[in-house]
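Reply to dn_fold:

You asked what the input looked like. This is it:
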Amino acid sequence: MAPIDLLAIGHVTRDRLEAGFTTGGTVTYGALASRALGKVPAIVTSAGPDLLSPLPDVDTHMVAALTSTAFRNDYGSGGRTQHIEGVAKSLSPSDVPTEWQRARSVLLGPLVGEIDAALARFFPNSLVVACVQGWLRHWDSTGLVIPRGWSGLDVLPYIDAVVVSIDDIVDDEQISQWSEIVPVLVVTQGSKGARLHAKGRWHTIPAFAAQEVDPTGAGDVFAAAFALMLLETGDTVRAATFASCVASFAVEAQGTSNLPTRAQVDKRLATG
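and this is what came back:
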């Protein structure tokens, strides 16, 4: 078996659209982006029999559940609102196959707080990157997703980098606190690019021109690409710039249908 370049942990979701359902989740976008870039991904997840289908050509360890985690996304003039329509099982270190415990990089992608914090310190020999959105929210009795406070002290000291959307940040104080705990912090800002904090300095990461069709999953694609390039080069600014370029392809079509190859990314990087 080929070494795992990126092990994505979190729920693969069954997302409701106007025209039906689609497969989503941080691990879905992250793993498929990795595969498109020529890397070897794997997934640890939990889902029920209602999940549409396993991801093609991605090794997946599935923890069986009665139902899959499911979201309904509603878009209006005030932006996006989300409702949770199902939640699969939680994930812990015991769910990670032994042969995957030495993956070169790990992407923690919680959506509904499903990842045991112990997983943050379970991979001492891997580069661990977290998309923290699933720890920053909960839901009310109707399933409406709402923000919640999260100190991150059981996760942040044990990982190498955090990628978070500015839309999920409560205030600048939260960013300041996290930047003092985690070695690398990336705050994505959609079409405005990203901000990167590393070694006590903030850096501005440019966005790449794109004809936006669907921004869903762009941050997840960014996180996976960032992890892979940081692993390859050790250069945080170069990794974030590369990730920004990869994400610019992802928004140009629905879902995961426009994830780029490495050659496509290198060409866009060269031309700006």
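DSSP finds five helices and 15 strands in the chain.
Hope that clears it up.
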